[in-house]
Amino acid sequence: MNFARFATFPIGRGLEATDGGLSLASTAPTTLDQFARSDVGCAAGAAGAEFYFWGDSLESGTYGAAVGLVPAEATVDVGMAAVGLEWRVASGELYRGPTLLRADLPTLGKGDIAGIRVVVDGDDAPVRVQLFRNAVQIHAGTVQLEGVLHFAVSLISPAAGRLRCVVNAGQWQGASEAINGGGWKQPSTTLAPLRLSVEPYMSASTDTPPNAAYLDLVAGDGLDAVASIAFWPWEGISRAGSASLKLQDGDGVLDAVALSDVRDVPVQVRRVDQGRALSTATAVSRYVLERIDIEDDGRKTAVLRDPHDDLDAPLHRAVFLPSINDQIAWQPQPVIIGAVRSAPTVPVNRDGSVQWVADAPLSSVAKVLDRGAEITAGDGYVLVSGGQQLAFGAPPVGPVIADVSSVGPDMRPATLERALQEVFRRIDKSAWSSQDARAIDSASGYAGIGFHAGAGSTPRQALAAMLPSYGADWWQDGEGILRITRMIDPDEVAETDLSFDLDWRELAGDLVVRPDLAPNLTRRMAYQPNAVLLSSGDMVSDLGLLTPTQRQQLSGPFRGQVYAGGPLASRYVRAEAAAPMVSRFDRREDAQAEIDRVIALYAVPRNFYDGRLAARTDIGFRPGQVGRITYPRYGLQAGRRVLVTSALSNPVSGRHVVRFWGA
Q1: Residues 286 and 480 sit within 8 Å (Cβ to Cβ)
Q2: What distance in Å separates the CA atoms of residue 550 and residue 575, rounded to the nearest whole number?
Q3: pLDDT digit string (tens) for 409-421?
């Protein structure tokens, strides 16, 4: 997603867009006559941005600045009030041309954030404007503005470099609805809906849309969809869905689309009987169009990927601004979810007496260590108002680490549901099943986990770190919802809850069996992982301040580990000496219960079963389903419950290649 920045051209005299357009600085004395505008305009819909000012002029109280809206063709050296809307943030005045609209707006001081949001309805209607001071709306009204609108900023500075401004158009979490309502971003490429089918089809008059024709361009065996899950004892990880759609296009209907740069277009796949209304269709899957490959004059292939590519967006929703510390400018602020041990802190002032911990407010700080030695709360340090920084009575030597929680007092960890809520909140994701996470929390009874991320982390990486603690993985259902499945014993699933019952006569070939060797299985599980490890040189040498046991805890990847002593099938003897699985649990009892549960699953040898079905459009397989298979060999003569781990399915031909797991 491309968010707006300051345009390098056109730009008012004495102003310079720096830091890739995220910052605006004065290179000479400047007045309200000069302004810089955004590189992205808003022609329709809603857009918003926030602005943060700092510098010597601001601190001395002799500065001035304005935020506003101007049309794309506006001259940048005539003042934005002459061509658009101008909010003078230091005096609290709002102008449209020479007309003073408001003179009573709250003024902005040091540390305040100015926000502006505009809604363009079109048809020459007045635009709706909201102004914000930090998180509080201070103005809402309409004003007559024409053309494609850009945000604009003026700086009043008596000398070069005395005043600067940073814009946040949605790159990070905002303070107000100016950002949290969507930000100011480049409009995405639009594509008229393409309605394709295996054979000619028209929706019913009662459907939405009514009487819509579907072009019969999809080949008869056109769609192969793949979905799979993997749990930590196994080899390899697969957490994505993909598909390829074969198209017959001898007339070149899709030539223009294939040659365009259109991508990231949502794709919905449904199955409906000919002659019936589209409203009776069943969902097969959802994807995002990656590209359309031209095979020859008559054939094309649409390459589809899973619709959850937002999982590769940045997890961090805040960065350190240059006003805080030039040495860490634009560095992502750390993410803390749940209970985190040895979270590193970041000095943000000259002597290190103020240190940043997280990009969101903390609920509790259990312990703060300077070179491993504990600092007393109150006299030694306090959690600053806002909950993200620690202020020290005396500058620490460093490095400083802290045991903290984002959830509650006493180092309370986050339940799986709460942890995932926080991950998905950061990318504004709603297409996930909180019920699945809640069910796992209920079944396990675990207190929960903790997660810390430095620079460069993504939601996908967060899921990969969190879910294995519960022996879980994610996949997507036919509606594109992100679902969560836990590794369970199929034999414990009730008869009434089975999703399928397959007899060997229904298979299109032999059932292929291979042993589950569980190469990553171990009897040990670690808990309380350290977010950062201290070396011996990072810790005080006084044994009275830091015991050998404490040194070992702080220098290792985790604070403790547990051992499962239950019976284990001889096939898994290597688990006896394997390294511990490092969980995200904070409570010893949670780690003990989970590793006992996993080891119990391998008290008997486990196998993978690969089967193929043909012409079965009446059945669909999803990862995590449990059913029964019956086969005349391999001890399956009486039937055995198995769990689906992967499925390659063609909803048109009814061809399925499925992998099952069980005893």
Answers
A1: yes
A2: 28
A3: 999 999 999 999 9
